[in-house]
Amino acid sequence: MVDKTKSNGKPGEEKTYIKGLGFCSFGIGSNVAQVDVKDGKVVRIRPLHFDEKYDPKEWNPWEIEARGKTFKPSMKSLLPPLSLAYKKRIYSPNRIKYPLKRVDWDPDGERNTQNRGASKYVRISWDEATDIIAKEIRRVHDKYGPYAILAQADGHGETKVVHGPHGCQTNLLKLMGGFTLQVRQPDSWEGWYWGSKHAWGMDPVGKMGPQTNVMRDIMQHTDMILFWGADPETTTWGWQGQMASRLCYHFTELGIKSIYICPDLNYAAAVHADKWIPVRPNTDTVLHLAIAYTWLTEGLYEKEYVATHTYGFEAFRDYVLGKEDGIPKTPKWAAEICGVPSYTIKALAREWGKKTTSIAHCNGGSYIRAAYASEPGRMEVLNLAMQGLGMPGRHQVTMIEWGLFGMHTQNPLPRSTCIPDPYKAYRGYFLGYFPKQHIPKTLIHEAILNPPLKWHGHVMAGMPREDQFIEFQYPVEGCSEIHMIWTDSPCWMTCWNGGHRFQEALRSEQIEFVLAQHPWMENECTYADIVLPANTKIEEEDIGTDIFSGSFNSIFYEGQAIKPVGDSKSDYEIVCEIAKKLGMYEALTEDKTTDDLIEAGFMHSGVQEFASYEQFRDKEYVMVPTAPDWEDDPVGLYNFWKDPDNNPLLTPTGKIEFYATGLAEHFPDDDERPPVPHWIPYGETHQESLLHPRSDEYPFLIVSNHPRWRVHAMHDDITWLREIPTCKVKGADGYLYEPVWINPGDAAKLGIEDGDVVELYNERGGVLGGAYVTERIMPGVVYQDHGARVDPIVPGKLDRGGANNLICPHRTTSRNAAGEVTSSFLVGVRKVDLEAMRQEHQEAFTREFHPTAGLVFKAQLEGEK
Amino acid sequence: MKVFVIDVARCNGCYNCQIACKDEHVGNDWTPYAKPQPDTGQFWMKVNETVHGSVPKVKMSYVAMMCMHCENAPCMNNCQPDAIYRREDGLVVIDPEKCTGCMNCVDDCPYGVIYFNDDLMLAQKCTGCAHLLDKGWSVPRCVDACATDALRFGEEEEFKAEIAQAQVMFAEYGTSPRVYYLNLPKKFIAGTIFDPEIDEVLIGAEITCQNEKTGEVFKVKTDNFGDFWFKNLDVGDYSVWIEMGGYLTQTMEHISTIKDVNLGDIPVYKEVKVAA
């Protein structure tokens, strides 16, 4: 890369760059920030004030008037702490400084695949590394063919466009004949995707599709919002910033009641809830059923709407009333299972039945990504239908991913004239491209350990409902099984299903070569054979957008703020270096420079319609005006409510299906996702319920939300976050452990005190954590965020970092639904005798760690401690 | 004169203020305003979080603590080298070049917001980002980073209305802080009323709460979930009565609000009419 930092400010002077510090990746940007640099170092990261270079009149700021109050979006970007503290990530002691080779991996001899995760690394040059990689790619191609290379081209991370968006290796591999694609499943929305879609269509996401003007309608008409398994103060941060927080405060100012239904007093409930209803993890279906029972027996539902807008109500009614299985789904029956008192269930049902109510969602958590998540996902839709979904104030509103997939219909806030998309500059994996062979991300370990496999659907976020009925297999006829993995998103084991089993798969002889490229020495990097240092976006020149904030969209030029740290290169440059050794450089780059790509990106972004490239480069950001006619967009499902026949949904009947006709047709015998949603505590695929005998041994259900102080696996090394009480708990050995929330009553029974090191365990292994004894979690349930960095004590068995996905189920949502199950599973909890464990596992416990930042790069080097 | 106004009710606990302070002052040397803040363990702007109550009546509060920039600043009284000065805009600053590390100010500050930097042998604290204000910034970093307007900064006159309703920390010390707090958390007593015989919450039950020492009385009715909340109570001992037509009155005494109180789900029973 041309070093453009030389043109930076004079010595001692500050120069400011604009950077998008959102962490969705896939080219979908947010959290626009200003980065001030002096003498080659980042001085500070701060919000962008939109009016710094423009008069607000130039972009037509919107306002929403409702109930005598006005809601105005902020004139600055509402950064989360994850963006503000990013300087620590850039200069982390865990940055990979130079290319590495695993000491006992010899491509010309013993590969010692069984030592991945245990053996250390030595420095090699870029030249040597790219030579080895090119030779291995050629060898694998010659021996097995191109499909033997698995591209893990995926995962959330820094959002970049030209440089290092996830998947730039796919462009090279595609030119060389193909590859096997790891397909990203619709994660964090499992229940909506695998369940709700069969009740109401709603492609591509599964959540309520037309969100247009829903926020204004809620402000005008809604009396009560059920934040069901939703945390607008957490999951929103890395995606879009803190607008959701301001909305929650505004709801309260308008007199709208906020009810939080979740096992944990999540971060939004802690400050916004008018009422917290703790429900045991993954028993929400039972709570929904008892609410429906109350409505049915008390006549508290929209009978005419049900008659005209839905299909198959009778079958559902018979199940709820007990005519199908002899069990009426009464509040008393439900209370035993879900832990909510029956009198509270009835009170909630009547409030919902009488007041104008919407449900708000924020992705993630036990409600929507547990075993059989399709069932609560569908139940909610049916209950919304019983209360006249689409009528004023009655919606399912999304508090996250506003404008997902570049669709205005995914945004409940006022529409912008365009959602800028610099796709012409994008050098990552294009969502929607499928090579001949693919494997769902949730099945990678099974593909390696247990082939052949069959499953249904592409298992990619955004595919239509019908896709779930297509059967696929691995290996595809004529394609090889995978023998090489190339990952640029090495966080599978701490974010996906059955991480310990994935570690086992990575140690398989079947996988001859694992190549990882990443800025930080974490997670799968320590299981790779060659590790290449990628740099962060602060070190690169790029183009960016902010399209998720809910306030105003913008597009910006991201100058190169500092020189690359260590010997790092951007992900795109890494692939280019490898392409050079394969004679593919010209074909890959098409002779386009970064400048060419940035200009092309801007000139096709949509913004070129009203702003020149010169203005873009001169001011470095362009604000996108609010659409002048935004107020005319129909509210949510208003048209469906008014005239369902002429505004059908994407279900086979065009109506809300209490009896899912598509499931009945394609999976008539699937008792894990039957046509009418059922309460399925356990079954053939999963036994993760307190009603199952496994709970005798593992008596707690764990809530594993998307993390508050990370985005999945990112940000775990930021010292300023790690000293926040809910971010890490300091153990007696000085190690900062991932908190495990335990109710004081349970802690007393287990002899656990605040600050003790504890182990969460089941048959799949154990992970450690630091006890955080708190009233923020209901009895019988423990809570630990997912995404902590893996720090193996015994690879495949026991982990110090607290990456609890290592011990979550490896099986998918249900028999025919390939989602991940990473929250609400059974664990035992015990206090750890640290000294005894240290004696038993001396090597792991003497591995160097930074007292405040945790894992360090040099601990993985041969010859270091 | 500059003031800070902190509305605790609008703080969502994101810690942006604490982080932005570190981003500005850790690793950056703003001499003559301030030398660098240590990476961890010291907080020129600190968020203190507290969990109140018990399941399911639980709330959290986040209270940002910083130098109060007192008009009568105790830290200035015993500073041997006379290193602490008040600027024209009211901000109190420790001159890092004059500070000799005698630590008197650390001991004298009643708010515990002056830290001693062992590596630099300096007393350090919030400067109000004076180095930025003097460059033309209108607010310090913590305020710029606040996403909810919980934290505000400006001229005293602009905030007259807020200051009229605000509290200061430890007013009794007579330090006259320039940091004003709105909605500092007080104590609550909460509960849920239900009739176990019919398995229903009781809506509209009249709950009375009396401070046993002052005699002050508060009344609320249970809402549609059978819940009641007495918020903003002082620390003290309280009595609570539950009254509902047709039900036996229940009384609970000597309820201490040293900690917030969840009385739990309280069963109440119908009056039984005994035949004459």
Layout of secondary structure:
The complex is a heterodimer of chains A (865) and B (276).
Chain A: E1 14-20, E2 32-38, E3 41-47, E4 64-66, E5 69-71, H1 81-84, H2 86-90, E6 100-102, E7 121-123, H3 126-144, E8 149-152, H4 168-175, E9 180-183, H5 190-200, H6 214-221, E10 224-228, H7 237-240, H8 243-253, E11 257-261, H9 269-272, E12 275-277, H10 284-298, H11 303-309, E13 310-311, H12 313-321, H13 331-338, H14 342-354, E14 357-361, H15 374-386, E15 396-398, E16 437-440, H16 444-449, E17 453-456, E18 471-474, E19 484-487, H17 492-495, H18 499-506, E20 513-518, E21 530-533, E22 542-546, E23 554-558, H19 571-581, H20 585-589, H21 594-603, H22 613-619, E24 621-623, H23 638-642, E25 656-657, H24 661-666, H25 694-697, E26 700-703, H26 719-722, E27 729-730, E28 736-737, E29 739-742, H27 744-750, E30 757-762, E31 765-773, E32 781-783, E33 792-794, E34 798-799, E35 825-831, H28 834-840, H29 842-846, E36 849-850, E37 854-855
Parallel strand pairs in A: 8-9, 8-19, 9-16, 10-11, 10-14, 11-12, 13-25, 14-15, 19-20, 20-21, 26-32, 29-31, 31-34
Antiparallel strand pairs in A: 1-2, 2-3, 4-5, 6-7, 6-21, 17-18, 22-23, 23-24, 26-35, 27-28, 29-32, 30-31, 30-35, 33-34, 36-37
Helix pairs in contact in A: 3-19, 5-15, 10-13, 10-14, 10-15, 13-14
Chain B: E1 2-7, H1 16-25, E2 45-54, E3 57-66, E4 84-86, E5 92-94, H2 104-108, E6 115-117, E7 122-124, H3 130-133, H4 141-145, E8 151-155, H5 160-165, E9 179-182, E10 187-195, E11 200-201, E12 206-211, E13 217-221, E14 227-233, E15 237-243, E16 250-256, E17 261-267
Parallel strand pairs in B: 1-9, 10-17
Antiparallel strand pairs in B: 1-8, 2-3, 4-5, 6-7, 10-11, 10-14, 12-13, 12-15, 15-16
